[in-house]
Sequence to fold (264 residues):
Amino acid sequence: MLNQTKPDPVRSPLLEGAKAQGIHHGYFTRVGGVSSGIYQGLNIGTGSNDEQTRVAENRRRVADWMGIPASHLLTAHQVHSPDVVIAREPFVGERPKADAIVTDRPGIAVGASTADCGPVLFADADARIIGAAHAGWKGAFTGLLENTIAAMEGLGARRERIVAVLGPSIGPKNYEVGPEFVARFVEADAGNISYFTPSANSGHAMFDLNLYTVDRLKKAGVTAEGLRRCTYAEEDLFYSYRRATHRGEADYGRQISAIVLEKE
Fold:
C-alpha cells in the first residue's frame, strides 16, 4: 500500500455532504509519498529531519490531490496553543504560530499536521467558510476548538450550520497518562473524570482524547463526530509520535488533514 504513488486520504461521510457546495477534504495517510525509512510514505512534516526535498514533493502531491498549487496548501507553525489565524492568501516567509486556520477564500487549503494529536476539519457549507485545527490535549483543553468556531463566525459562519469532524488521532487504548494529567482535567471540571479509565500501571490512566474533543465540539453547538481511527495502532497508515518514542526512534513523520473551497 505504501508503494502507491498517489495519496488516498480517509474521508468523512459528514463532510462529504458539503461536496455539493464545492468543499473538498481529506485526512491524508502515509499512502502516496516518496519518503523512506522511519518516514516511509507521505511525510509532510517540515519540522521533521526527513529530506526536505521529499517533504516538499509529498506536500505537492497532497496539494495536487486537493486541486491547488503547493503554495496554497497552508499549515501553521503549530505550538499547542488556543490560537487561530485567518488566511486569505498564501503565507509569505515565516508561518504564523497558531494551531488553527480558517478561511473564506476559494483555492486556499487549510490543514493540520499531526502525529497523534487530533486534526479537526470544519465547514459551514452555506457560508462557504472552512477551518482546520491541530487539537492535541493542550489545545482542546485551553479552548482551541471554541476559538476556531468563533473565528469562523467572525467571517460570517453560523455555529448551528458548522460541521466539525475529528480525524485519525491516538485512541484511548494507547494513550496512557499520569496522575497529574488526570488531576488537571478534573480540577477544571469534575465531569472530565469520565474520559479516563484505569491503566495497568498503578496511578496512571488511559485518556479518551477522541471523545473529549468531540464532546467539546458538541457543547460548543456544532454538529460533530470522530472517525475513531487510531494513529498509534494503524502503523501502515499513520505516523505516531508516541509509537516512535516507545520504540526509541530518532524522529517521526507527520500526516496532514486538509480542506479547501473549490473555486466557483
Notes: The chain has two domains: 13-170+220-261, 172-207. The chain has a mean pLDDT of 96.
